[in-house]
Amino acid sequence: MKFFSGFCLANEQELFSSYLNQSDFTVAGFSYGAIKAFEYTLTCKERIDTLQLFSPAFFEDKDAKFKKLQTLSFSKNSELYTQNFMQNIVYPSTFDMQPFLKQGSLEELNELLHYTWNEERLCALKERGVNIEVYVGECDTIINALHVKDFFVPYASVYYLKRVGHILK
Question: Which SUPFAM superfamilies does the entry link to (predicted)?
Answer without folding.
Answer: alpha/beta-Hydrolases
